[in-house]
């Protein structure tokens, strides 16, 4: 009977590292421990720009993996994103998504990103490089993990009922009992799994232009008043600032703009030109009334800037190959727009829940309760439940994107096309997301409650 002794992961971003963390965690070991080899295209010293926001749904899982207490000291802990209007003149009709009695003309609502009292965890904004370095340090000490850098995966050589063999650009090959692709939105492994060239990233025509600015320069009069992200809605769209770093001494400052799609070289050239990126923000500075936004654009650091083109991937019909030896997760399986800050969180959920599923299956196989071919069936049921959750997030994202439209584009839209907090029970509208019961979902698979053809 086949056992999952050897697992290959391709891609050492947040999804791949979290997957490796869970696969090598003592709580998830069976009688036959997993041995994991993680291959990464880039060098270990590659710098990952920007920051991510982690909410209670992923932080709870990092807590179960024993790393939350450390991670929370490395970033900025906060609870809410305050949504405001650029000027009182914009307060009309659907521009207002919820009253706030302290500033009825300008504050339009709050998006709860975490709340210790309600969900056990605050939100955490942390530099991507900081969390990746922290996970590397932990993984370096795991005896059943091998990290390989500067190794470019090219294709699957063969897949049988017992194993899968992959090839690399340098001519090497490697075989394992299971291959898991965490190689991002432009995943090559997804192309193998679905065998359909139409399931590829499509540019939305929008990109974020983002950088860092000193909090003291953005709000010199009251820098201490910025205790969490602020979204300012104006005539030209939304400008977002968010404290980052353990003390919040810097702010992420950025907005979304329409921009022509570039080829790989074009995007790279733009990313390497800080002054050009700063000029893209400065082009819209005159349209803002908010001193906070104006100051942020003026003082943003060119060397800190980056762009994030928004690509979408059509729904991927299968996250597992026909023979069941190749699986994709994270952005490779379901890329989400960054609007809600849930892309990284869903990658963490994918990784943790998949390992919980595989561990349960391995234990059941070792005890003779299921056959080896139970893995593809169980993974398809897991995908079905994960896709339901992703679909709900996509619907919420569409509404939040409408909140961020320029004022003129909102005219004529109905209230149900916008996201709004629950006025009767603030924060409860987020419970479905932050209190997800992954163990219950996995148990439902083993009990046969989720049937998928």
UniProtKB/TrEMBL annotation:
<comment type="similarity">
    <text>Belongs to the paxM FAD-dependent monooxygenase family.</text>
</comment>
<dbReference type="GO" id="GO:0071949">
    <property type="term" value="F:FAD binding"/>
</dbReference>
<protein>
    <submittedName>
        <fullName>FAD/NAD(P)-binding domain-containing protein</fullName>
    </submittedName>
</protein>
<keyword id="KW-0503">Monooxygenase</keyword>
<keyword id="KW-0285">Flavoprotein</keyword>
<dbReference type="InterPro" id="IPR002938">
    <property type="entry name" value="FAD-bd"/>
</dbReference>
<dbReference type="GO" id="GO:0004497">
    <property type="term" value="F:monooxygenase activity"/>
</dbReference>
<feature type="domain" description="FAD-binding">
    <location>
        <begin position="6"/>
        <end position="359"/>
    </location>
</feature>
<dbReference type="InterPro" id="IPR036188">
    <property type="entry name" value="FAD/NAD-bd_sf"/>
</dbReference>
<dbReference type="InterPro" id="IPR050493">
    <property type="entry name" value="FAD-dep_Monooxygenase_BioMet"/>
</dbReference>
<dbReference type="Pfam" id="PF01494">
    <property type="entry name" value="FAD_binding_3"/>
</dbReference>
<keyword id="KW-0274">FAD</keyword>
<keyword id="KW-0560">Oxidoreductase</keyword>
